[in-house]
């Protein structure tokens, strides 16, 4: 019982640090969109799309490999040998990556739409190399059951990132206007978005400094035989990770190459990237659910009775219900939500409902992944992600030249829709759970219908009347759910009460 309590506590700490961190970083979107033009923010979006992909490649599944081999019956008696081998491996590959970027800095900078701003590229390459290397010390903290230090370092890093962004983008221009001599020795008012990348580099470097205690007190040894075994174990995870991250970022990478009017490519990318951030509310809910759900499904798997399957059905049901509630809440009050980005970006608001539904499908797909996780058929996860990637590439190639960033949004929707359907069909064959698909589909169609009604009856001259009508529509959705589920409102809210009921079935 003490082990279960410890797991629950650690999960909560890791979850809070990750979700709070993601939310705080999300809060930087208004800063960027109000202070930078769409073309400049397009460069930021483009560079960070490559950063996300590079991080997956440079860690090449070694985090999971470290956990597996540190607990392996053959190597588990000497976990520090596993740790040092992993560190040396990532240190070598990260250093090689940074060296290659520096050797080919000029062509890479041009290829990444950064003009002659070479510092943008080398700073982000250095930040990625540092973050890839420090991924293993952070994994070690989890292995050593030190969640407070893990969360503390993560939140400190995020706090410094936000603080430096505010300093360089807001405070320094104000000081420059009133007393330029104070900061003239380090501040260049024309550097603009470069300070976003400089901030990232500084915070990544600080991470390495703060993690030095985890890099001392043991012998640095490289076990070649163990490393080969770890690479053999981890490479499928690399394929899965690359396919998964490309499903999320490839549209932003391809947009500048595929859009018909090249002169507006970065503007379109900036508009798409900014509006994409509004829809990320759905992603944050999915991530919060994931932290509770993963330990939940494996704990429930110990029970071989019907109650186990019913628990999985209930988890899916409530995920769908609350995800659609979030979708309606954002879309009904999009006139308020849109103010997190500057008015110059509002022309791209049409992507928000499409991307939110795509993220909803992704969340459902994650719930459906239970069948291959519980049956140890994780290779299906790799094939599922590769299928989604193929759909993403095809749809972007077909749609973006004609519809610009709207084509990116529809490609994301198609990708996750295909993955969701494929996972459901295979799960029904391999590990049938018996989801109530008609009911879940009914909730989805109800949400779409209510959203359609809200758009149809919108009166531009009377926004407060619109809000009143949409509140009634939101209440109608909740009342239908309560009636179908035969529940009272007090039983439905808050979300935490529902999750506790699932966890204690």
Task: Work out the number of β strands.
Answer: 0
Task: Give the proportion of residues in helices.
Answer: over 70%
Helix-strand sequence: HHHHHHHHHHHHHHHHHHHHH
Strand content range = under 5%
Mean pLDDT: 84
Characterize the overall form.
Answer: globular
The biggest beta sheet, please?
Answer: none
Tell me the structural class: mainly alpha
Helix segment count? 21
Unreliable parts: 1-8, 494-505
User: Cα distance, first to last residue?
Assistant: 16 Å
Radius of gyration: 24 Å
What attributes does this structure have?
disordered C terminus; globular; 21 helices; disordered N terminus; 0% strand; mainly alpha; 505 residues
